[in-house]
Design brief:
Length: 368
C-alpha cells in the first residue's frame, strides 16, 4: 500500500447508533404487530384476546373507558300555560280536518271486453250477448288487413266499403249504450284498396313505381306520404264520430315481411320512425275533441326489444302518444315493467293483456 494512504474507518456517533437501534425496534414491532393480527379475536363486550398456537387463549387488558358525563340538571320550571279568553256568545269552532285528496280516476278500470264477429241488431241484443260472456264492453273490427271498412263509411274509398257494411245509425246506437265500452279494432296501414288507387301519392312502392305487395299480395300505405296520413286520420275521426270510446290501432308499422328488397324508400323525406310518430301525433290531435282514446296493439317481441328498424316501430317514440298498449302476454307484471322502462320516466300507458278465449271463437280481453 502506498505511503500516506490508509483505509478510512468511519466512526459513528452515539446518537447515530441510538437512532439505528430505535428504527430496528420499530421495524421489529411493526412486523410483530402485523403477524400478531392473525391471532387477535374480540369478545362480545369489546374485549380482545390472543388465540396462539400451542399456547391457547391469552386475554389482553381492556383500556378503561371514560366515564359518561353526568346529565345537566334541567331547571325545574312550571310548564307554560296558554290562556285563551273567548268572547261571550261566540262558541269555539274546532278546526276543520283537511280533506284527503281523491285518488286519480282509472281511465280503464275493471272491464271485460269480448270481440264481436258481427254487430247485433240493436241495444237489447247487444246487452244479451255481453251478459252471456259477463262482459261490459266489446271490440269490433271496423277495418281489416285488406283495408276493407265494415260500416257504411263516407270517408272510405267506395270500393273499400264492405257489401254488408253495418249502418252508421246501428253502430252509433250500440256505442251509445250506457255502461258499455266500445272499442274499434282499426288496421292502420295494411291496405289493398286505397294504396292501389293512389300508388305514387300514398302507397309503399317498388323501384319501378308500381305498388309493392307482400306475401299475401296485399298492399301497404306509406305514412311518410301526406295523402296516406289524411286517409287514415279521416277514417279514425269517423269512428270517433260514431261514438267509439277507443280506437285500437293494429299493424301500425311499415311492412317487415315479404320481398322487402324490392321496396323503394329513396324518395321519402323522413325516416320510418319519424313518419309513424307524425301520424300518431296527428291522430291524437284529431281525436282529442271527441275524447276518444288511442291505443296500440303490439307484439310481445316488440315489448322485449323496444324497437324494430325494419318496421320503424319505436316504443320510446310512440308510448307518449297513446293511452294504452294491448299485448298478448302470459306475464302482465313483466310487460308492465317493460312499458315503464321504455317510457323513461314519462307517463306510462295502461297495459291491456290479451288472452285468447276458446269461447265460440271470440277473443276475450280482461283489463283492469
Amino acid at each position: 500500500m502506498a505511503k500516506g494512504y490508509q483505509s478510512y474507518r468511519g466512526r459513528h456517533s452515539a446518537g447515530t447508533r441510538l437512532l439505528i437501534i430505535l428504527l430496528a425496534v420499530i421495524l421489529v414491532a411493526a412486523c410483530g404487530f402485523l403477524v400478531i393480527q392473525r391471532y387477535i379475536s374480540y369478545t362480545y363486550d369489546g374485549g380482545m384476546y390472543l388465540e396462539l398456537p400451542l399456547v391457547g387463549r391469552v386475554d389482553l387488558p381492556v383500556p378503561p373507558r371514560p366515564a359518561a358525563a353526568a346529565p345537566e340538571e334541567e331547571d325545574e320550571q312550571e310548564p307554560a300555560v296558554n290562556v285563551v279568553v273567548d268572547a261571550p256568545g261566540e262558541p269555539v269552532q274546532p278546526p276543520e280536518p283537511e280533506a284527503e285528496p281523491e285518488p286519480p280516476a282509472d281511465v280503464y278500470g275493471e272491464r271485460h271486453l269480448v270481440e264481436l264477429a258481427a254487430l247485433p241488431a240493436d241495444a237489447a241484443a247487444l246487452s244479451a250477448q255481453l251478459a252471456a260472456f259477463s262482459a261490459n264492453g266489446f271490440l269490433w273490427q271496423v277495418r281489416d288487413n285488406t283495408g276493407l271498412v265494415r260500416y257504411a263509411s263516407g270517408a272510405a274509398l267506395q270500393k273499400a266499403v264492405a257489401a254488408d257494411a253495418a249502418a252508421a245509425e246501428t253502430v252509433s246506437a250500440l256505442c251509445a249504450q250506457e255502461g258499455t265500452v266500445a272499442v274499434a279494432r282499426f288496421n292502420a296501414l295494411h291496405d289493398s284498396y286505397y294504396a292501389f288507387a293512389n300508388m305514387k301519392e300514398a302507397a309503399v312502392c317498388q323501384r319501378n313505381g308500381y305498388v309493392w305487395y307482400d306475401s299475401h299480395s296485399y298492399h301497404w300505405l306509406d305514412p311518410s306520404k301526406e295523402l296516406a296520413r289524411s286517409y287514415v286520420i279521416g277514417l279514425a275521426m269517423e269512428c270517433a264520430q260514431l261514438g267509439f270510446d277507443e280506437i285500437l290501432l293494429e299493424e301500425f308499422a311499415y311492412p317487415a315481411e315479404g320481398k322487402l328488397q324490392k321496396i323503394d324508400y329513396s324518395g321519402n323525406t323522413m325516416g320510418k320512425t319519424e313518419a309513424l310518430t307524425l301520424l300518431l301525433q296527428q291522430l291524437r290531435d284529431a281525436l282529442e275533441p271527441y275524447g276518444t282514446r288511442l291505443s296500440l296493439l303490439v307484439t310481445e317481441e316488440l315489448l322485449q326489444t323496444g324497437a324494430d328498424e325494419e318496421s320503424g316501430q319505436s316504443l320510446a317514440a310512440m308510448l307518449p302518444l297513446v293511452d294504452a298498449v294491448y299485448v298478448a302476454t302470459a306475464d302482465p307484471a313483466a310487460a308492465q315493467a317493460r312499458l315503464a322502462a321504455f317510457a323513461a320516466g314519462g307517463a306510462v300507458p295502461a297495459l291491456v293483456p290479451l288472452t285468447a278465449a276458446a269461447v265460440e271463437g271470440n277473443w276475450c280481453v280482461q283489463a283492469g
